[in-house]
Design a protein that fits this description.
The chain is mainly β. It has one helix and nine strands. A hairpin with a 5-residue loop joins β2 and β3.
Length: 104
């Protein structure tokens, strides 16, 4: 599987769990890395990095920004052998490919 195919797989999964990324910043698949898995074992993975969308953007009558919840940087870990999406990291914990959460 190529990096482009991995990106397409991750994008499709993100859409299915209602997770959007900032199109201006983009989404990128990095080379294989050996990373510690959630259970503490070491695993060879591809890491896909992205930033979520900014939300709650509001302006006053003068066009000045008055409210913004900035998106956060996340990573998606994909098993390098099976190409299975393992999990997403967020500042608040982990998100699994089925959309469920593991809180920190």
């Amino acid at each position: 599987m190529t990096k482009d195919q991995i990106l397409e797989k991750v994008k499709k999964n993100m859409k299915s769990i209602d997770l959007e990324y900032d199109l201006d910043i983009g989404i990128k698949c990095w080379d294989k890395e050996v990373e510690e898995d959630l259970d503490g074992s070491m695993r060879e993975t591809y890491v896909v990095r992205f930033k979520t969308l900014d939300t709650n953007v509001k302006y006053n009558d003068k066009g000045e920004l008055i409210s913004l919840i900035e998106g956060f940087y996340c990573s998606c870990y994909v098993d390098a052998k099976t190409f299975e999406i393992l999990y997403y990291t967020t500042p608040h914990g982990y998100r699994l490919p089925d959309g469920s959460y593991i809180r920190l």
